[in-house]
Description:
The complex is a heterodimer. By secondary structure, chain A is an all-alpha fold. Chain A contains 8 helices and 2 strands; from the N terminus they run H-H-H-H-H-E-E-H-H-H. In chain A, strands 1-2 form a two-stranded antiparallel ribbon. The mean pLDDT of chain A is 93. Chain B starts with a helix and ends in a 5-residue tail after the last helix.
Amino acid sequence: MYVADLPIRDDLRAAHEATVDCWSRPGTWWTAEERLAIVAEVRRARDADEIPPAWVRASQIEGAVAEDHLLPAAAVDAIWRLTNHPGTLTADWYASVIDGFGDDSAAITPSEYTELVGLVAQANSIDRFADGLALDRPTLPAPVRGEPSRSMPEGAAIHDHWVPTVPSEDKEVVKALSGVPAEKNASFLLGDAQYLPVAEMYDLTADRNALTRVQVELVAARTSKLNECFY
Amino acid sequence: MLLGLSDLSQDAQVSFDVVVGTGDGDGGVTHGQLLARLVGAMWEGDPSTLAAVRDEVTAAMGGDALVDAVAVSANFHMMTRIADGTGTPLERGGIERTAEVRAQIGVDDLVSRRQTDPV
């Protein structure tokens, strides 16, 4: 992965390789084929010649999405919206996704949605990294056979987020994917390498690799602002 | 995602113009404007603009810094989607601590703000 003269740290390269490998394995609620289809759809959404406005569902645009898509239509629509318009998401929109936009056959469960958010977020991150450095995006591996674990962690329920989470003393954003622990772990594996390990996050004196901490936070804040993220 | 910069700004002379994208200075951060332009180029995705900014960052800060900056930005393309995609609320203490910064950056009117009550 990443054939380049750039000084890409070993831990960063390893985190990306481990994440891509995880995409190809059965997840908690989605099969390996479905997980890879989610990542592939992120790429289609980002690379679309014309990105539809937030209020237009990709599945309703003729030719934008394959009619025999492996994923439910609501999942495809959620992928496009999360990828291209993350700052426009609302609780009503989330409820519509879970409801399949009124089509029971297209609906997905809150836990399936949570895993999807994790995958979409990871794929956007890794591809943005590759694109940002003019590297080839990682090739998607072949799917590994097997069944999703379909296991809910103890205590997972709707609390303060839209999705089920497990109560803890962690920050709210750390809890966000706790209803699907494998995706929480995968996201924080990436975060440890790309940003900071959680344990160092509150040590504001710590520089990070070639950047000072204030430079790191400037890049983080500017990226969040462009994504119109309040958090 | 603003908590870190908010806290850091208390000890450093950091201006938030560079975060908002309205100023042409460094905002009190070494190479701040250049880093903000790198983030903007990643956001826009135009290959020629990106290539030019990458060259500038490499010349001014080195290849290690370029990779690290791209990695940090990539990480927040992930974290923002996790936060906004799951309806993550802000901690009430966080809102109070960052109120001034939020006003300066103008995030209080964002759709994502209207959808989550602090806890």
